[in-house]
Amino acid sequence: MDLIIFLVLLALGYGTGRYAEHRHYKSILEREDALRPIPAVATKLAPWGDPVPETQMVSGNVVVSVDYFKRFVAGLRNIFGGRVTTYETLLDRARREAILRMKEQAKQLGSHIVFNVKVETSSISKGRKNAVGSVEVLAYGTAFINPR
Amino acid sequence: MHISTLEYAPGKKIRQHLGLVQGSTVRSKHVGRDLMAGLKNIFGGELKGYTELLHDSREEAMGRMVEQAQAAGANAVLNIRFSTSSVAQGAAELYAYGTAVVLE
Fold first, then answer.
1. Cβ-nearest to B47 among A21, A63, A138
2. Distance between CA B28 and CA B3 in Å, rounded?
3. Fewer beta carbons below 10 Å: N end or C end of chain B?
4. Could you report the predicted ipTM of this complex, rounded to two decimals?
Protein backbone atom coordinates (compact mmCIF):
# COMPACT_ATOMS: atom_id res chain seq x y z
CA MET A 1 0.00 0.00 0.00
CA ASP A 2 2.78 2.38 0.96
CA LEU A 3 4.57 1.52 -2.22
CA ILE A 4 1.49 2.30 -4.30
CA ILE A 5 1.10 5.71 -2.66
CA PHE A 6 4.78 6.37 -3.20
CA LEU A 7 4.60 5.44 -6.88
CA VAL A 8 1.47 7.52 -7.42
CA LEU A 9 3.11 10.54 -5.80
CA LEU A 10 6.21 9.97 -7.89
CA ALA A 11 4.19 9.81 -11.10
CA LEU A 12 2.10 12.84 -10.12
CA GLY A 13 5.20 14.80 -9.24
CA TYR A 14 6.92 13.84 -12.47
CA GLY A 15 3.94 14.73 -14.65
CA THR A 16 2.82 17.98 -13.06
CA GLY A 17 6.35 19.07 -12.19
CA ARG A 18 7.56 18.63 -15.75
CA TYR A 19 4.54 20.42 -17.14
CA ALA A 20 4.85 23.31 -14.67
CA GLU A 21 8.56 23.68 -15.34
CA HIS A 22 8.08 23.65 -19.10
CA ARG A 23 5.37 26.29 -18.89
CA HIS A 24 7.39 28.39 -16.48
CA TYR A 25 10.47 28.37 -18.70
CA LYS A 26 8.37 29.35 -21.68
CA SER A 27 6.93 32.32 -19.81
CA ILE A 28 10.37 33.28 -18.49
CA LEU A 29 11.87 33.32 -21.97
CA GLU A 30 8.99 35.37 -23.35
CA ARG A 31 9.16 37.95 -20.60
CA GLU A 32 12.95 38.12 -20.73
CA ASP A 33 12.66 39.03 -24.39
CA ALA A 34 10.02 41.65 -23.64
CA LEU A 35 12.04 43.20 -20.82
CA ARG A 36 15.39 43.20 -22.59
CA PRO A 37 15.28 47.01 -23.08
CA ILE A 38 15.53 47.39 -19.29
CA PRO A 39 18.90 45.95 -18.31
CA ALA A 40 19.54 44.96 -14.71
CA VAL A 41 23.21 45.52 -13.95
CA ALA A 42 25.32 44.75 -10.90
CA THR A 43 27.43 47.92 -11.22
CA LYS A 44 27.73 49.78 -7.94
CA LEU A 45 28.83 53.09 -9.39
CA ALA A 46 26.06 54.14 -11.71
CA PRO A 47 26.91 56.95 -14.08
CA TRP A 48 24.35 59.71 -14.39
CA GLY A 49 24.18 62.74 -16.60
CA ASP A 50 22.04 65.76 -17.03
CA PRO A 51 19.15 65.79 -16.16
CA VAL A 52 19.76 63.99 -12.90
CA PRO A 53 17.59 60.86 -12.77
CA GLU A 54 15.26 60.05 -9.93
CA THR A 55 15.97 56.80 -8.14
CA GLN A 56 13.59 54.28 -6.70
CA MET A 57 14.23 50.96 -5.08
CA VAL A 58 12.64 48.01 -6.84
CA SER A 59 12.45 44.39 -5.78
CA GLY A 60 10.97 41.09 -6.80
CA ASN A 61 10.66 37.87 -4.88
CA VAL A 62 9.42 34.37 -5.50
CA VAL A 63 9.12 31.12 -3.58
CA VAL A 64 9.36 27.99 -5.70
CA SER A 65 8.98 24.44 -4.55
CA VAL A 66 10.48 21.32 -5.99
CA ASP A 67 8.16 18.41 -6.83
CA TYR A 68 8.07 14.96 -5.31
CA PHE A 69 9.83 13.25 -8.20
CA LYS A 70 12.70 15.72 -8.26
CA ARG A 71 13.20 15.43 -4.54
CA PHE A 72 13.40 11.67 -4.93
CA VAL A 73 15.97 11.96 -7.74
CA ALA A 74 17.98 14.42 -5.66
CA GLY A 75 17.88 11.95 -2.80
CA LEU A 76 19.36 9.30 -5.07
CA ARG A 77 22.04 11.75 -6.17
CA ASN A 78 23.02 12.17 -2.56
CA ILE A 79 24.22 8.59 -2.60
CA PHE A 80 26.37 8.81 -5.72
CA GLY A 81 27.29 12.47 -5.64
CA GLY A 82 27.59 14.75 -8.64
CA ARG A 83 25.44 17.40 -10.21
CA VAL A 84 21.91 17.62 -8.93
CA THR A 85 20.31 18.93 -12.13
CA THR A 86 16.81 18.84 -10.65
CA TYR A 87 17.73 21.50 -8.10
CA GLU A 88 19.80 23.44 -10.60
CA THR A 89 16.72 24.15 -12.71
CA LEU A 90 14.71 25.02 -9.59
CA LEU A 91 17.19 27.70 -8.54
CA ASP A 92 17.64 28.95 -12.09
CA ARG A 93 13.89 29.38 -12.48
CA ALA A 94 13.55 31.13 -9.14
CA ARG A 95 16.39 33.60 -9.82
CA ARG A 96 15.22 34.48 -13.29
CA GLU A 97 11.65 34.89 -12.10
CA ALA A 98 12.69 37.19 -9.23
CA ILE A 99 14.76 39.35 -11.56
CA LEU A 100 11.88 39.52 -14.03
CA ARG A 101 9.49 40.65 -11.31
CA MET A 102 11.94 43.33 -10.28
CA LYS A 103 12.21 44.49 -13.88
CA GLU A 104 8.44 44.52 -14.25
CA GLN A 105 8.22 46.84 -11.28
CA ALA A 106 10.90 49.05 -12.83
CA LYS A 107 8.98 49.12 -16.09
CA GLN A 108 5.83 50.27 -14.30
CA LEU A 109 7.80 53.16 -12.84
CA GLY A 110 8.96 54.13 -16.31
CA SER A 111 12.57 53.22 -15.63
CA HIS A 112 15.08 52.31 -18.33
CA ILE A 113 17.79 50.67 -16.20
CA VAL A 114 18.25 49.05 -12.79
CA PHE A 115 21.59 49.47 -11.02
CA ASN A 116 23.34 47.65 -8.21
CA VAL A 117 21.20 44.54 -8.37
CA LYS A 118 21.63 42.05 -5.55
CA VAL A 119 20.18 38.58 -5.55
CA GLU A 120 19.60 36.74 -2.33
CA THR A 121 18.63 33.12 -1.93
CA SER A 122 17.32 31.42 1.15
CA SER A 123 15.78 28.07 1.84
CA ILE A 124 12.62 28.49 3.86
CA SER A 125 11.73 24.93 4.75
CA LYS A 126 14.93 24.22 6.58
CA GLY A 127 14.91 21.74 9.38
CA ARG A 128 12.52 19.39 7.65
CA LYS A 129 14.81 16.43 7.10
CA ASN A 130 17.47 18.66 5.56
CA ALA A 131 15.45 18.88 2.37
CA VAL A 132 15.84 21.95 0.20
CA GLY A 133 12.14 21.69 -0.57
CA SER A 134 11.42 25.27 -1.44
CA VAL A 135 13.67 28.25 -1.99
CA GLU A 136 13.00 31.93 -1.83
CA VAL A 137 14.86 34.29 -4.12
CA LEU A 138 14.80 38.04 -3.67
CA ALA A 139 16.23 40.38 -6.28
CA TYR A 140 16.52 44.08 -5.53
CA GLY A 141 18.15 47.10 -7.04
CA THR A 142 17.82 50.78 -7.75
CA ALA A 143 15.85 51.88 -10.78
CA PHE A 144 16.85 55.08 -12.53
CA ILE A 145 13.96 57.12 -13.84
CA ASN A 146 14.62 59.97 -16.22
CA PRO A 147 12.49 63.00 -15.39
CA ARG A 148 10.14 64.00 -18.15
CA MET B 1 12.24 59.29 2.42
CA HIS B 2 14.76 58.49 -0.26
CA ILE B 3 15.51 54.76 -0.30
CA SER B 4 18.22 53.26 -2.45
CA THR B 5 20.60 50.33 -2.77
CA LEU B 6 23.29 52.69 -4.06
CA GLU B 7 25.93 54.19 -1.83
CA TYR B 8 25.14 57.71 -2.95
CA ALA B 9 22.23 59.69 -4.34
CA PRO B 10 22.71 60.90 -7.91
CA GLY B 11 23.13 64.65 -8.07
CA LYS B 12 22.78 65.13 -4.31
CA LYS B 13 25.44 65.68 -1.67
CA ILE B 14 25.42 63.82 1.62
CA ARG B 15 25.51 66.40 4.37
CA GLN B 16 25.59 64.07 7.34
CA HIS B 17 25.95 60.38 8.07
CA LEU B 18 23.77 59.11 10.89
CA GLY B 19 24.96 55.54 10.99
CA LEU B 20 23.32 52.17 10.54
CA VAL B 21 19.58 51.78 10.79
CA GLN B 22 17.89 48.42 10.81
CA GLY B 23 14.56 46.72 10.95
CA SER B 24 13.61 43.11 11.28
CA THR B 25 10.60 40.90 11.68
CA VAL B 26 10.19 37.24 12.46
CA ARG B 27 7.25 35.56 10.79
CA SER B 28 5.82 32.13 10.71
CA LYS B 29 3.28 30.79 8.31
CA HIS B 30 -0.17 29.72 9.38
CA VAL B 31 -1.55 26.22 9.13
CA GLY B 32 -3.71 26.79 6.04
CA ARG B 33 -0.81 28.04 4.04
CA ASP B 34 1.38 25.24 5.32
CA LEU B 35 -1.18 22.72 4.11
CA MET B 36 -1.20 24.20 0.63
CA ALA B 37 2.58 24.27 0.66
CA GLY B 38 2.58 20.60 1.58
CA LEU B 39 0.51 19.85 -1.52
CA LYS B 40 2.75 21.99 -3.66
CA ASN B 41 5.71 20.02 -2.37
CA ILE B 42 4.30 17.10 -4.36
CA PHE B 43 3.42 18.96 -7.54
CA GLY B 44 6.13 21.58 -7.58
CA GLY B 45 5.69 25.17 -8.64
CA GLU B 46 5.39 28.56 -7.06
CA LEU B 47 4.11 28.91 -3.52
CA LYS B 48 2.14 32.11 -4.00
CA GLY B 49 1.08 32.33 -0.36
CA TYR B 50 4.67 32.29 0.80
CA THR B 51 5.77 34.74 -1.86
CA GLU B 52 3.18 37.23 -0.59
CA LEU B 53 3.91 36.52 3.05
CA LEU B 54 7.63 37.13 2.62
CA HIS B 55 7.00 40.22 0.52
CA ASP B 56 4.72 41.71 3.19
CA SER B 57 7.12 40.82 5.98
CA ARG B 58 9.98 42.44 4.15
CA GLU B 59 7.92 45.60 3.69
CA GLU B 60 7.35 45.59 7.43
CA ALA B 61 11.05 45.17 8.19
CA MET B 62 11.78 48.04 5.82
CA GLY B 63 9.08 50.15 7.46
CA ARG B 64 10.73 49.66 10.83
CA MET B 65 14.08 50.61 9.37
CA VAL B 66 12.57 53.78 7.89
CA GLU B 67 10.96 54.65 11.23
CA GLN B 68 14.36 54.39 12.89
CA ALA B 69 15.88 56.59 10.22
CA GLN B 70 13.16 59.20 10.66
CA ALA B 71 13.68 59.17 14.41
CA ALA B 72 17.35 59.89 13.83
CA GLY B 73 16.45 62.84 11.64
CA ALA B 74 17.50 61.36 8.32
CA ASN B 75 15.80 62.03 5.02
CA ALA B 76 17.35 59.11 3.15
CA VAL B 77 18.55 55.55 3.67
CA LEU B 78 21.33 54.49 1.35
CA ASN B 79 23.02 51.19 0.60
CA ILE B 80 20.13 49.04 1.74
CA ARG B 81 20.67 45.31 2.05
CA PHE B 82 18.31 42.48 2.88
CA SER B 83 19.01 39.27 4.64
CA THR B 84 16.88 36.26 5.48
CA SER B 85 17.55 33.57 8.02
CA SER B 86 15.45 30.77 9.37
CA VAL B 87 15.55 30.89 13.15
CA ALA B 88 13.35 27.89 13.80
CA GLN B 89 11.40 25.39 11.80
CA GLY B 90 8.59 27.24 10.10
CA ALA B 91 9.75 30.70 11.09
CA ALA B 92 11.97 33.07 9.19
CA GLU B 93 13.60 36.34 10.11
CA LEU B 94 13.65 39.07 7.52
CA TYR B 95 16.16 41.77 8.12
CA ALA B 96 16.75 45.05 6.33
CA TYR B 97 19.57 47.46 7.05
CA GLY B 98 21.09 50.55 5.56
CA THR B 99 22.87 53.80 6.26
CA ALA B 100 20.79 56.76 7.36
CA VAL B 101 21.98 60.04 5.89
CA VAL B 102 20.89 63.62 5.53
CA LEU B 103 20.84 64.69 1.91
CA GLU B 104 21.05 68.24 0.74
1. A63
2. 27
3. C
4. 0.85
